[in-house]
Amino acid sequence: MAGRRALILAGTGMLSEVAETLVREGWHVVLPSRRYSPIAVPEPKQGVAALKALRPRGHRPTNGTGTGGGRKPGRALWVESHWDRPRELAKKAEAALGGPADLMVAWVHEQYRRSVLGACERLLTPHAPVVEVRGAGGPPVEPEPLLTAHPTQLVMVGAVSELDNSRPLAHAELSGAILFAVNRAVEGRPTSLHQVGLSRPLVR
Protein backbone atom coordinates (compact mmCIF):
# COMPACT_ATOMS: atom_id res chain seq x y z
CA MET A 1 0.00 0.00 0.00
CA ALA A 2 1.29 3.40 -1.01
CA GLY A 3 0.41 4.88 2.36
CA ARG A 4 -1.49 7.87 1.00
CA ARG A 5 -4.82 8.85 2.51
CA ALA A 6 -7.84 10.41 0.84
CA LEU A 7 -11.02 11.83 2.31
CA ILE A 8 -14.05 11.74 0.00
CA LEU A 9 -17.03 13.84 1.05
CA ALA A 10 -20.09 13.19 -1.07
CA GLY A 11 -23.55 11.72 -1.09
CA THR A 12 -23.74 7.94 -1.05
CA GLY A 13 -22.22 6.53 -4.25
CA MET A 14 -21.80 9.93 -5.94
CA LEU A 15 -18.00 9.67 -6.20
CA SER A 16 -17.69 5.88 -6.14
CA GLU A 17 -15.58 5.76 -9.33
CA VAL A 18 -13.07 8.17 -7.81
CA ALA A 19 -12.91 6.02 -4.68
CA GLU A 20 -12.45 2.82 -6.71
CA THR A 21 -9.66 4.38 -8.76
CA LEU A 22 -7.79 5.62 -5.71
CA VAL A 23 -8.13 2.27 -3.93
CA ARG A 24 -6.73 0.45 -6.96
CA GLU A 25 -3.74 2.78 -6.76
CA GLY A 26 -3.08 1.88 -3.13
CA TRP A 27 -4.79 4.78 -1.36
CA HIS A 28 -6.51 4.46 2.00
CA VAL A 29 -9.88 6.09 1.30
CA VAL A 30 -12.42 7.23 3.89
CA LEU A 31 -15.99 7.94 2.80
CA PRO A 32 -18.30 9.57 5.34
CA SER A 33 -21.94 9.39 4.24
CA ARG A 34 -25.39 8.64 5.59
CA ARG A 35 -25.83 5.28 3.89
CA TYR A 36 -23.37 2.49 3.15
CA SER A 37 -22.42 1.91 -0.47
CA PRO A 38 -19.90 -0.86 -1.22
CA ILE A 39 -16.86 0.10 -3.28
CA ALA A 40 -16.01 -2.41 -5.98
CA VAL A 41 -12.28 -2.81 -6.63
CA PRO A 42 -11.85 -4.87 -9.80
CA GLU A 43 -8.55 -6.33 -10.92
CA PRO A 44 -6.12 -3.70 -12.31
CA LYS A 45 -6.33 -3.29 -16.08
CA GLN A 46 -3.53 -2.36 -18.45
CA GLY A 47 -3.93 0.80 -20.47
CA VAL A 48 -6.54 2.55 -18.35
CA ALA A 49 -5.54 6.20 -18.61
CA ALA A 50 -7.36 7.28 -15.47
CA LEU A 51 -5.39 4.82 -13.35
CA LYS A 52 -2.03 5.64 -14.85
CA ALA A 53 -2.69 9.33 -14.42
CA LEU A 54 -3.14 8.97 -10.69
CA ARG A 55 0.47 7.93 -10.16
CA PRO A 56 2.63 10.65 -8.62
CA ARG A 57 5.34 12.35 -10.63
CA GLY A 58 8.44 10.21 -10.96
CA HIS A 59 6.47 6.99 -10.39
CA ARG A 60 8.08 3.85 -11.79
CA PRO A 61 5.95 0.72 -12.16
CA THR A 62 7.05 -2.22 -10.02
CA ASN A 63 8.43 -5.12 -12.07
CA GLY A 64 7.49 -3.27 -15.25
CA THR A 65 3.98 -4.68 -15.26
CA GLY A 66 1.94 -1.47 -14.99
CA THR A 67 -0.64 -0.97 -12.33
CA GLY A 68 -0.69 -4.54 -11.10
CA GLY A 69 3.04 -5.34 -10.82
CA GLY A 70 3.26 -6.04 -7.12
CA ARG A 71 1.11 -3.04 -6.17
CA LYS A 72 -1.26 -3.83 -3.34
CA PRO A 73 -4.67 -2.19 -3.55
CA GLY A 74 -5.61 0.16 -0.76
CA ARG A 75 -8.85 0.04 1.13
CA ALA A 76 -12.05 2.01 1.44
CA LEU A 77 -13.72 2.64 4.79
CA TRP A 78 -17.28 3.88 5.09
CA VAL A 79 -18.10 6.10 8.06
CA GLU A 80 -21.74 6.68 8.97
CA SER A 81 -22.22 10.42 9.23
CA HIS A 82 -24.58 13.31 8.53
CA TRP A 83 -23.90 16.68 6.91
CA ASP A 84 -25.80 18.51 9.65
CA ARG A 85 -23.35 17.20 12.26
CA PRO A 86 -20.02 18.41 10.81
CA ARG A 87 -17.94 18.16 13.98
CA GLU A 88 -19.08 14.60 14.60
CA LEU A 89 -18.40 13.76 10.95
CA ALA A 90 -14.87 15.15 11.17
CA LYS A 91 -14.16 13.26 14.38
CA LYS A 92 -15.28 9.94 12.87
CA ALA A 93 -13.36 10.59 9.66
CA GLU A 94 -10.22 11.44 11.61
CA ALA A 95 -10.35 8.11 13.44
CA ALA A 96 -10.90 6.19 10.20
CA LEU A 97 -8.08 7.99 8.35
CA GLY A 98 -5.47 7.13 10.94
CA GLY A 99 -3.41 10.19 10.01
CA PRO A 100 -3.54 13.42 8.00
CA ALA A 101 -5.21 13.12 4.58
CA ASP A 102 -3.13 13.79 1.46
CA LEU A 103 -6.18 14.54 -0.70
CA MET A 104 -9.77 15.70 -0.26
CA VAL A 105 -12.47 15.22 -2.90
CA ALA A 106 -15.74 16.91 -1.96
CA TRP A 107 -19.20 17.17 -3.47
CA VAL A 108 -21.32 18.55 -0.66
CA HIS A 109 -24.74 20.20 -0.85
CA GLU A 110 -24.44 24.00 -0.83
CA GLN A 111 -26.37 24.18 2.44
CA TYR A 112 -23.67 22.23 4.29
CA ARG A 113 -20.62 23.00 2.16
CA ARG A 114 -18.98 25.59 4.41
CA SER A 115 -19.61 23.82 7.70
CA VAL A 116 -18.53 20.36 6.52
CA LEU A 117 -15.42 21.38 4.59
CA GLY A 118 -14.49 23.82 7.35
CA ALA A 119 -14.73 21.10 10.00
CA CYS A 120 -12.67 18.68 7.91
CA GLU A 121 -9.90 21.07 6.86
CA ARG A 122 -7.89 20.25 9.99
CA LEU A 123 -7.72 16.61 8.83
CA LEU A 124 -5.56 17.53 5.82
CA THR A 125 -1.80 17.77 5.55
CA PRO A 126 -0.67 21.44 5.26
CA HIS A 127 -0.51 21.44 1.45
CA ALA A 128 -2.94 18.65 0.60
CA PRO A 129 -4.80 19.32 -2.66
CA VAL A 130 -8.57 19.55 -2.78
CA VAL A 131 -10.99 18.67 -5.57
CA GLU A 132 -14.34 20.36 -5.06
CA VAL A 133 -17.36 19.57 -7.22
CA ARG A 134 -20.21 22.07 -7.32
CA GLY A 135 -23.44 22.28 -9.29
CA ALA A 136 -23.59 25.13 -11.76
CA GLY A 137 -27.37 24.90 -12.13
CA GLY A 138 -29.89 26.69 -9.97
CA PRO A 139 -29.03 29.98 -8.24
CA PRO A 140 -25.69 31.49 -9.34
CA VAL A 141 -22.71 30.52 -7.19
CA GLU A 142 -19.29 32.12 -6.99
CA PRO A 143 -16.74 29.70 -8.50
CA GLU A 144 -14.24 30.26 -5.73
CA PRO A 145 -12.43 27.56 -3.70
CA LEU A 146 -13.50 27.40 -0.08
CA LEU A 147 -10.27 26.08 1.45
CA THR A 148 -7.98 28.77 0.10
CA ALA A 149 -4.89 27.45 1.92
CA HIS A 150 -5.02 24.33 -0.26
CA PRO A 151 -4.54 24.11 -4.05
CA THR A 152 -8.02 23.36 -5.36
CA GLN A 153 -9.37 21.88 -8.57
CA LEU A 154 -12.89 23.32 -8.74
CA VAL A 155 -15.28 21.39 -10.98
CA MET A 156 -18.49 23.22 -11.93
CA VAL A 157 -21.19 20.81 -13.10
CA GLY A 158 -23.86 21.85 -15.59
CA ALA A 159 -27.19 20.19 -16.28
CA VAL A 160 -26.91 19.38 -19.99
CA SER A 161 -24.21 17.84 -22.15
CA GLU A 162 -21.70 20.02 -23.96
CA LEU A 163 -21.82 17.49 -26.81
CA ASP A 164 -25.57 17.72 -27.25
CA ASN A 165 -27.50 20.34 -25.30
CA SER A 166 -30.77 18.50 -25.92
CA ARG A 167 -29.83 15.77 -23.44
CA PRO A 168 -28.71 15.71 -19.80
CA LEU A 169 -25.06 15.50 -18.88
CA ALA A 170 -24.01 11.84 -19.15
CA HIS A 171 -22.51 10.03 -16.19
CA ALA A 172 -19.40 9.16 -18.22
CA GLU A 173 -18.81 12.84 -19.05
CA LEU A 174 -19.15 13.82 -15.40
CA SER A 175 -16.96 11.06 -13.96
CA GLY A 176 -14.31 11.67 -16.62
CA ALA A 177 -14.13 15.36 -15.75
CA ILE A 178 -13.87 14.67 -12.02
CA LEU A 179 -11.15 12.04 -12.52
CA PHE A 180 -9.25 14.52 -14.70
CA ALA A 181 -9.40 17.05 -11.86
CA VAL A 182 -8.25 14.42 -9.34
CA ASN A 183 -5.33 13.63 -11.64
CA ARG A 184 -4.30 17.29 -11.68
CA ALA A 185 -4.61 17.50 -7.91
CA VAL A 186 -2.41 14.45 -7.33
CA GLU A 187 0.16 15.84 -9.78
CA GLY A 188 0.44 18.96 -7.62
CA ARG A 189 -1.03 21.37 -10.16
CA PRO A 190 -2.09 24.87 -9.05
CA THR A 191 -5.67 25.90 -8.35
CA SER A 192 -7.82 25.84 -11.49
CA LEU A 193 -11.45 25.92 -12.61
CA HIS A 194 -13.06 23.18 -14.71
CA GLN A 195 -16.49 23.31 -16.35
CA VAL A 196 -18.32 20.15 -17.38
CA GLY A 197 -21.73 20.40 -18.97
CA LEU A 198 -23.80 23.49 -19.63
CA SER A 199 -26.41 25.26 -17.58
CA ARG A 200 -29.92 24.48 -18.71
CA PRO A 201 -31.30 27.46 -20.66
CA LEU A 202 -34.12 29.39 -19.03
CA VAL A 203 -37.57 28.73 -20.47
CA ARG A 204 -39.70 31.84 -20.74
Averaging pLDDT over every residue, what do you get? 81
Separation, N- and C-terminal Cα atoms? 55 Å
SSE topology string: EHEHEHEHEEHE
Give the radius of gyration.
Answer: 17 Å
Physical arrangement of strands within the biggest beta sheet: 3-2-1-4-5-6-7
- Determine the strand fraction and express it as a percent band: 15-25%
Number of strands: 7
| Assembly of the depicted chains | single chain
Coarse shape:
globular
Characterize the largest beta sheet: strand count, sense, and whether it forms a barrel.
Answer: 7 strands, parallel
Percent of residues in helical segments?
25-40%
Number of helices: 5
Low-confidence sequence ranges: 43-52, 56-69
Structural class: alpha/beta
What do you see in this structure?
With 204 residues, this protein is α/β, with parallel strands linked by helices. The protein contains five helices and seven strands, in the order E-H-E-H-E-H-E-H-E-E-H-E. Strands 3-2-1-4-5-6-7 form a seven-stranded parallel β-sheet, with helices on both faces. The model is unreliable at 43-52 and 56-69 (pLDDT under 50).
Write a brief structural summary.
With 204 residues, the chain is an alpha/beta fold. The chain is 26% helix and 20% strand.
Based on the model shown, name its key terms.
single chain, 204 residues, alpha/beta, 7 strands, 26% helix
